[in-house]
Amino acid sequence: MSKVSILTAGKVHPRVIERLQPHFDLIRLDRPDPALVTPEIAGKVRGATGFNGMPADLMAALPHLEIVANFGVGYDGVNVAHAAANNIMVTNTPDVLNAEVADTTLGLLINTIRLLPRAETWLREGSWEKDGAFMLSPLSLRGRSVGIYGLGRIGLEIAQRVAAFNLPVSYHTRSERKDVSYRYYPSLEALAEAVDTLICIVPKTPETHKTINADILKRLGPNGVLINVGRGWTVDEEALADALENKVIAAAGLDVFQDEPHVPARLIALDNACLLPHVASASVPTRNAMADLTAENLISWFEKGRPVTPVPETPFRG
Ligand code: NDP
């Protein structure tokens, strides 16, 4: 029997290829572009995966497509509405990265507040010997009150870490969680008013677009710190640059940006912004675990008839 054909579109983690190779006939596209789909490819592809998402026009060019296995827990790059309407299963990689992303978030929070990357640069550039001790950080983690915008799988692990630092935690989500004792705020405005440190870990959806705006930043106040590890989409970057330049808030730590890999020059110019190139889950062990789960979804679908981790918009109905 001939093997099922799987399309890998754009960048793919090498371990996904390695895991899929024994099971499937792999067809590689340089980018997720329907113009690259030949009639032969269209006639046989039944599954797809990739790092760069899956637009509706590419799915539409593959009439036998049954499943898209997204590499990553955030699947905003996959047109899930098109998939759901066309009976295409979409899977993602939840849970296996929770701890890594939460660890990185705390690292980014501390780096933002205690200026550790700048202190290291001071040492490496010889300034410690030449000019003496690095400046005292104007801010401290001590005494802060932390609000988490999004208390899902990752947000909850961030909350546990923040609590272990002996800081009070509160949160905002659309529905209050019954399984936690952290203080709930039914609006982002109320949460921002109540805390001085806001950590954003919500998905990219139409409802979360630029919800961290000038008003929310003003509510955090002059001691305010914003950390974003969710998606750049959620922060109004112009408003954030204004707030940082004018000291409406004290500092921001960002792992994600609106138009990656482009980072606005205004943010790069700021001393009170700590900037990372979307690395929250980017360790070899965690990316390997994500690669394994991506591959297992495709293998399970074609060999056992069910996905491992379907997204809520395309539930498995047996
Ligand atoms: P979950 O789905 O488990 O959690 C999402 C949380 O956001 C829930 O608490 C949900 O609560 C809340 N939420 C969703 N929409 C809204 C809204 N409109 N208003 C308020 N709260 C909202 O996702 P994960 O924790 O697994 O991942 C979260 C996101 O983190 C991913 O979608 C991804 O974009 C990002 N991410 C970034 C990484 C990085 O490298 N920087 C790595 C991994 C993930 P409720 O439904 O009750 O509103």
Task: Please tag this protein with its features.
single chain; 318 residues; seven-stranded parallel beta sheet; five-stranded parallel beta sheet; 13 helices; binds NADPH dihydro-nicotinamide-adenine-dinucleotide phosphate
Description:
By secondary structure, the protein is of the alpha/beta class. It contains 13 helices and 12 strands. Helix 9 packs parallel to helix 10 (214-220). It is elongated and about 70 Å long. The mean pLDDT is 98. The structure holds NADPH dihydro-nicotinamide-adenine-dinucleotide phosphate. Residues 73-74, 94, 97, 101, 150-155, 172-175, 201-205, 207-208, 229-231, 255-256, 278, 280-281 line the site of NADPH dihydro-nicotinamide-adenine-dinucleotide phosphate. Pfam families: 2-Hacid_dh (PF00389), 2-Hacid_dh_C (PF02826).
